[in-house]
Amino acid sequence: MYKKFSAILLTAATAFSLSGTAAAADWRAWNIHNEGHPNHAAMDRFAELVGEATNGEINLEVFHGGVLGNQPDALEQVRLGAIEVGNFNLGPIGPMVKEANLVSLPFIFKSVPHMFRVLEGEAGQAIADAMGEAGLLPLAWVDAGARSFYSQKAINTPADVEGLKIRVMNNDLYTSMISAMGGNPSPMAFSEVQQALKTGVVDGAENNFPSFKNVGHYEVTTHYSLSEHLIIPECICVNTAKFEALSPEMQAAVRGAAEEAALYQRELWAVQSGEARTEVEAAGIKVNEIADKGPFQEAMVSVYDDYLAANPDMKELVDLARATE
Ligand code: BDP
Fold it and tell me: Which residue's CA lies nearest to atom 12 of ligand 1?
């Protein structure tokens, strides 16, 4: 009898906690992108899915366009729990979580599918664990294609970067990467890049096609050179403590929503990155293939040597990535 009663109570409690009648939590999500970028749509979808999967118990509001702050600041906010969720690039996570820097080594991945295979393996698990410990738990990985250089001239060899001031994201590996080619690296927030390109504060930058297009960098440059030197994944990440405070059912609901939104993002990315390229070319951007990327890869040897000399514990992850088919 007692057993039956407690079972009923338990069922009622479960129904109650998933019914939306329990106090709903308001969560905020940070996103840097504007409408028209695949991640804008994917994050909106994530918010919808979270609402559905938790029966409204978590009400997620997405703040697009970086209005909650620049990426390094937003990352700190999520780590502190002041913002619950974000769509983050792993580049600016490297300075906070050493393991995440694996993905910021130039040419570490052979292709986007290779990058995902590495993330799905042991190296990816090591990165996810370290991020979770740092307060930034990745729920799902999303696609950010490959990053290439753009400026007022075509770049075909590392020598073409010599003397150019190139904007990079906030990570010492990127400053080393530009310096190794004889360029002058300029770390800067994403929101400032268009103006910096326009006024000549920098001569160039590097990014994927959707971001190049979405924030108008293509309006203030002329050439996009397919160096594809970095393939950096992104995540849908959550503050670890807030996630762990959820019941197992709610955790599964939120994780499931992130996984579904990430699949949606990858589908959108596949279509819209091609469209972004077509659109910038139609607007006059000259896109050049780089027949031989070997000289760029050779120029990165010193970047790897210096990085691994300072961080010998990262060699294992580098070897794991390289051994992944
Ligand atoms: C975009 C990323 C975004 C970065 C931006 C940048 O999606 O997270 O902030 O590049 O270059 O591709 O800063």
Answer: 211
**Whose Cα sits closest to atom 1 in ligand 1?**
211
What is the reported pTM?
Answer: 0.93
Ligand 1 atom having least distance to the Cα of 169: 13
Which amino acid, 105?
Answer: L
Local structure of 63: helix, strand or coil: strand
Kindly give, in sequence order, each residue whose CB lies less than 8 Å from that of residue 6, ignoring residues fewer than 6 positions away.
Answer: none
Name residue 224's beta-bridge partners: 150, 287
pLDDT digits (tens, 9 = 90+) for 105-142: 999 999 999 999 999 999 999 999 999 999 999 999 99
Distances (CA, A) of 162 to 16, 158, 209, 305: 64, 7, 23, 21
Cα 189 to ligand 1 centre (Å): 9
The Cα 180–Cα 40 span in angstroms is 34
> What torsion, rounded to 10 degrees, do the Cα atoms 108, 148, 35, 51 define?
0
